[in-house]
Amino acid sequence: MSNLRTSSASAPGSPLNSTFNRPKTLNAFGGKLMIEVVAAIRELNDHPDTVFTVLTGEGRFFSSGADVKASGLDSPEGFANDAEKKIAFFQRFVPALEMLRSIIDHRKVFVLALNGPAVGGGAAWFTGVSDIVLASSSVYLQVPFSALGLVPENGSAINFSQSMGVHRANEFLMFGRKVTVQELEQWGIVNQIFPVDGFQDHVLQYLEGQLAFVDGAPTQRFVEKKKLLECI
């Protein structure tokens, strides 16, 4: 079974979804999930008709972050020398970096649809690089980096400092407390909150409503608006 499920366009301009499809692991980043996300986002970037690319999750979680069962290095006996071990260690981070780069460089409007709670990398990586963030009422964000002896990664410290303020970001990242979806909306990180039941339908209705404001060729207009906003 694929780690990622991608929808097809039902009509010109309709949103295209990429869905984390590892619900039994709470959509942890294991297997080839991140590699499949990179491939899907790049493909959707060149889709001629769509305006919105949506990233969401299957099941009750958006993502539980790293798959700890699949994140360990091989035993020391598996490496010829320390140099090989060091290179193997850094290679573990390449898929995540490439995934975020594909989102940052994405030409279409990138929509993060948080269907449920997000923890670790699932909480830290995506809100700061998405254009629009929609959330279900069950969402919370939590990053237990300090408890695990880790530092905020992939630009999350600067992204959260800019979006929620330095002192809130310090509390969130250092102490690992859960931030509720209501707080995320108050702080401007989440655009809209929708009920858990029928969440994906609410997301679709919201995005189709945005298209209703644009006449003519919506794809090109939204792409150009995004370019202008990125110059600010």
Structure overview:
- The chain is of the alpha/beta class.
- The chain has one domain: 2-enoyl-CoA Hydratase, Chain A, domain 1 (Alpha-Beta Complex), CATH 3.90.226.
- The chain is built from 9 helices and 9 strands.
- Helix 1 runs parallel beside helix 3 and helix 5 packs across helix 6 (166-175).
- The longest helix has 13 residues, at 33-45.
- The mean pLDDT is 88.
- InterPro entries: ClpP/crotonase-like_dom_sf (IPR029045), ECH/Chromodomain_protein (IPR051053), Enoyl-CoA_hydra/iso (IPR001753).
- Keywords: Isomerase.
What would a concise description of this structure say?
With 232 residues, this protein is an alpha/beta fold.
Oligomer: single chain
Alpha-beta classification: alpha/beta
The CATH class is identified as Alpha Beta
Content of β-strand: 15-25%
Q: List the helices and strands in order.
A: EEHEHHEEHEEHHEHEHH
Shape: globular
Write out the CATH superfamily name.
2-enoyl-CoA Hydratase, Chain A, domain 1
At CATH level 2, the architecture is Alpha-Beta Complex
Number of helices: 9
Average pLDDT score: 88
How far apart, in Å, are the first and last alpha carbons? 42 Å
Total count of strands: 9
CATH topology: 2-enoyl-CoA Hydratase, Chain A, domain 1
Radius of gyration: 18 Å
Strand order of the largest sheet: 1-2-3-4-6-9
GO molecular function: isomerase activity
InterPro entries: ClpP/crotonase-like_dom_sf, ECH/Chromodomain_protein, Enoyl-CoA_hydra/iso
Keywords: Isomerase
Protein name: Putative Enoyl-CoA delta isomerase 2, mitochondrial
